[in-house]
Amino acid sequence: MNEQQFSNIDGRFNLHYLATDKFKTNLVQIYFMLPLRTEKEAAMNALIPAILRRGSENYPDNQLIKTELENLYGSAINFNILKRGENQLLRFSLEMVNEKFLSHRSDLTKKAFQLLNDLIFRPVLENNKFKQKYFEQEKEVLKNNIEALINDKYSYTIENCIKKMCSREKYGIYKLGSIEELAKIENEELFAHYKKIIKQAKMSLFLVGNFKRKFIDDIFEQSLLPASSEIVDDNTELLYREKEAEYYQTELKLNQARLSMGYRTGITRNSTAYYALLVFNSLLGGSTHSKLFQEVREKRSLAYYVSSSIETTKGLLFINSGINSANSKKVENLTQEQLAKIAAGDFSEEEFSRSKKSIINSLKQDLDSNKALAAHFLLSLINNKEESINATIKQVEQIKRSDLIKVAKKLRLDTIYLLKGKDD
C-alpha cells in the first residue's frame, strides 16, 4: 500500500486527514492530550471518559446509544486512556462504514460524528454536575480496575518497575491514578475539571479513510470542538543516569516469578538513533530470533517467556521475563551478557538482517490498519517529528551494524524489579 502522509487541513485546529480508499471503514479519533501531573488528576482524567460514554443529552443511557449505533450500520464508538511519555491522552474513537460501500445515498458519517460529539460535549447532568448515579458507579468501576492490575502479574510487574524507576518523574504516575487519590474526588470537582479540559486541553482530530469534502469543510460547524488550547505543557523529561542499578523485590502468592529490568537509553523517537534502537530491540528481545529468546529461553530454559520493549517518548527499554525466582540472578547476568555481546559486535549478519526485516514487516503490517496509521502519526506529533510509516521504513532500511553497537553501548541499567512467590 502506498501510504499518503497525514495533512493538517485546518489552521485553527490540529485536524489531520489521511485520504485513502483502502479500508471499508472510516475512522475518526479525537485526542485530548494532557500533561501527567498528579495521581489525583490522572484519576480524574481516567474517570471522565468512563462517565461520558454512559450517555448524553440526546442519548441519556447505553441502550439508546447502542440502538443508534446499530441504526448507523453497526458503527462503533470507543473511549480510552493512554500514556505516551509524560502525557495522558483521552482518546475518543468512531469507526463507521465507508459510505461508498452503501447501495444508496446516506448521511451516515455526519450522523455518526454528531453522536460522538454529543457524547463528548453534552453529558447527562444533574444540578450542574455529572449525573450522580453515573459518577458513583464509574468511580467504583475505576477503583476495581486499578485494584485488578495485581491480577495481571505481567503488567503489575512492569508498572511497579516503572514506579520505582521513575519515582521522581511524572512518568512514574499510573495512567489510571491511584485508589487513594481517586477516593478524594468529588462530583463537583470532577465536572469543573472536565469543563477545563474541554476549553483548554491540547486537542487533535484524526480522520483516516474516504471522507466527503463537504464533511471536512463543515466539520467545525457540526461539532462543539473548540479551536484553541492552553494546556500545552506536554514535554517529556529525558533522563540518562550513570548510576548503580537499584534492586527491588515484592512477594506475593504466585507460582511463577516475574522479573523486569529497566534501562535508560538516552534515545527518543525524535533522535536520529531511534531507528537503530528499533532494530536493536528486535535483535535483543523483540522477536523469536532475538538473543534473549534464544539464549535465555530456548538454550538454557531459564525463562517461561522473555522479551524486550521500548517506550520511545521517554527513552526507556524494559526486559521482562517469567522465571523461577531461584534463577533470577542467572537471568540478570545472562541478559547483561547478551547486551555486552551486541555492544562488542558479536552478532551474525543473519541475526542483523532478520532483526531489520522483522521491524520492516511489522511496519508494513501497520499500513493495513487505519488505527495503526493514526497511532504511528500521533506518536510522531507528540515527539515533534511528523513522519509517515513509509518514511520510518526507509530510515530502518539504512541502519548499519555499527548503529546497533552504538545503541548497545549507550544503554544503562537503572532498575531491577522482582516479583516472587512467598513460598519460593
UniProtKB/TrEMBL annotation:
Pfam family, one: Peptidase_M16_C
Highest taxon, organism lineage: Bacteria
Protein name: Predicted Zn-dependent peptidase
GO MF assignments: metal ion binding
Domain (Peptidase M16 C-terminal) ranges: 185-358
InterPro entries found in the cross-reference section: Metalloenz_LuxS/M16 (IPR011249), MPP/UQCRC_Complex (IPR050361), Peptidase_M16_C (IPR007863)
